[in-house]
Amino acid sequence: MQYNNDNDRQIYREELAPRLPKRIFDAHVHVWSRDSVPSGTTYPERSYKNFTGGTFTLEQWREAMKEILPEQEHWLNCFDCPAKETYRDKVPPVNHKNEFAMVLVSPADPAELVQERIERSGAIGLKPYLNYAAEVLNKPSNDVEINEMLTPEQLRMLDAKGLAITLHIPRSGRFADKLNQRQMIALCENYPNIKFIFAHIGRAYFMRNIRESNIEEFAKYPNAYFDTAMVNSTEILRYAFDHFPTKRILFGTDSPIALLRGKSVEINNQYAYLMGENYSIGTSIIDHEHSVHFTTFFYEQLRGILDAAPAGAAEDILFNNAYKLFTNLC
Ligand SMILES: [Zn+2]
User: Fold this and answer.
1) Which residue, 22, 202, 213, 274, is the most exposed by fewest CB within 10 angstroms?
2) Is 317 helix (H, G, I), strand (E, B) or coil?
């Protein structure tokens, strides 16, 4: 499958390649195969899962990266898709050298079972998701609290092992939500050996959300990290880089979603994904008329980081920070 067109290749050559480090670490990738789900599983027509043919295996990721970043060495941290149908005992078969993986976890999974999955797979941490808690608690996923996504037993086990969690925070107020803010800080405080990677910069995809966040408060917790997955706004990235140590910000893309053509944009204190092709991811506005030429979210995210990063920080964000973090976890 081909991801780049001539215009993308030109963007890479002219805008990205001269400024990118030789190694790129993507800390947020979803990887899954036919074995991850019951046979016969199909996805809604406009699901991104169909875009890569119904799977996104490590082999597909490696092939895609050769095309998208042809001059770089590629590293990743990955997890399966946190969907109801996914088998949580299947962990992506990474090589543990430049590839790392996390185990999907539901609050319904006993801590001993989760520990066994971590040890068997060599995973470096956990990936909880609000939908799993919503299912267990039988409540709408928007009402789930961070404290309901993992059990104290799971957290204690992970703290004892000193591993990581990639946390996609819940609730419609996201990073501006006071309850989220308190519970995020409490996690960092109560489990000092767990590395908390708050995904998508706390899902703050528009300026008011990050301005009303407490991101600067996390600076004093050395176990707090943020990943940049799907944030392509230079303004939001710059705000994060100005208010939190850049040594603890990790580049992440949310591939294979990031391989689609599109750009997230801020509209009247909200955000939407402008989609250059006929797939739907969250709040999407699809350009059916092909009014503009899009590049991929992947390249838009790299542009955003390269433009927003303070002098000398891009290589840390794009590689060094994740390298230090993940190679120390195994
Ligand atoms: Zn994700």
Assistant:
1) 22
2) helix
